[in-house]
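Work Package 3 (structural annotation) set out to generate three-dimensional models for the target panel prioritized at the project kickoff. During this period the team completed the workflow that converts sequence records into discrete structure tokens, so that structures can be stored uniformly alongside our sequence database. As a representative example, we reproduce one entry of 468 residues exactly as it appears in the project archive.
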Amino acid sequence: DRDALRCEIFPRPWDRYRDEPVYGDGITVTAKTEDEKVIVRNDRLEFLDVGPEFATNTWGRGTPRWINVVTFSDFSEDPESVGALPERLDDWNSVVQSAGFERSWGSREGVVLTCIHSSWRHHWQTPTSLRVFDAWMREQGFTMSISSAGRSAREILRRLGRYGLWPLTDLELLQALNAMAHGEVEVVTRGTTERRKARSPALPRRSLIALLRRITNNNMDRVDRILEILTGKEIVRIGMRVECSHCEQSNWYSVDDLRRELKCHRCLREYIFPSASPPSEWSYRTIGPFATENFAQGGYSVALALGALGFRLGAEVTWIPSIELARSNEIKLEADFAMFWQYKHIRSGSSRLIFGECKSLNRFEMKDVERMQELGSEFPSSVLVFCTLRSQLDWDEKKRIKRLVKAGRSSRGKTGNPVIVLTGLELLGTGIPNCWGKEAADVLTYARTPRGLDEVAILTQRLHLGST
């Protein structure tokens, strides 16, 4: 047996000042790489470890003989699946509920798994983003919880999947869905039409079709496709309004609830469906998380931010929405989303921690900026993201965020907490840098996809804050 020494500093042979250490990423040494079949049963993973050729003995003596690095490539639609991992996560066994005796921990390369025996079968519970963040935050001294607004954003992504957000990339459609959630609809009473708050908000089919034709430039194939997604993913449900014969109030029933005998939602009396003169118009109503007021409690902006920062930038992400952090000394922090971010094709590169503050059409107030500044102070080098569905920020908002940008820069000019600003241009567009188009040509001279979040921060500051 020989002793091993781990050195985390590297000399600079090209420099005459060789005694000065250079801190940087270590060199990855790999003996063997294999793709192993993973069996998934009842939300649990089963896989065999990979052993080097020199490991001739099948059974070890109770101490690790080599390590495996397990990486995750997320091709699923599940928004809670694990893609990127934090720099260090010691308690990986709690994430996967491992029943084995091997030790494992998370790193920038993947999950480091110590191996004792050759071709040993490991049993893990399928890791989720919530358990990854909960374990990592506990190691940082924080207890974590998800707010009700975060649950709405999570349900939106469960319905659509992380790659199915494109039907929501139109502000006019989002405003229509939000109006339906607030109950501002057309109501027909005794031959007159008025717009008022209704208990069962619904949008006539003709109105929704007209809206979709307008935003797709009369592309009927695209209209049919969007309508198929809206109904198939249960964003909206079709039904009709029927007037009660007793109280003469209008009631909305889904197609599943329509029957010969109906119960009025107002007077609670039963009446017969008017088969002799039935209503002629169908209408749609938002359901589930999409029926929540205030743009699904900001869930649309959070979901679209995930798309803009994740797969559209070619990154693996592990994210959770609307977290609340607390520490024993009563430090309380909030973010509309948190994310571990890493390029797909650079596994040895460091992952980045992102915190986001999201708005629908509201303005960023001073308290929002201060909340992000507190997160940056507790988590140095984390990336702070401001997201809004509006096309541009007000002067006061730019001034507040610029102060945060300046505060995050060290004396050497490097950014301690990079600040990214995403507006409707990025959230509702076709992805960075394509979404910037000609309107940003006078500000940006950029053609390729930015290499890293630091470049995205510099470019979006230049575009939306006027920073240089």
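The chain is about 25% helix and 25% strand.
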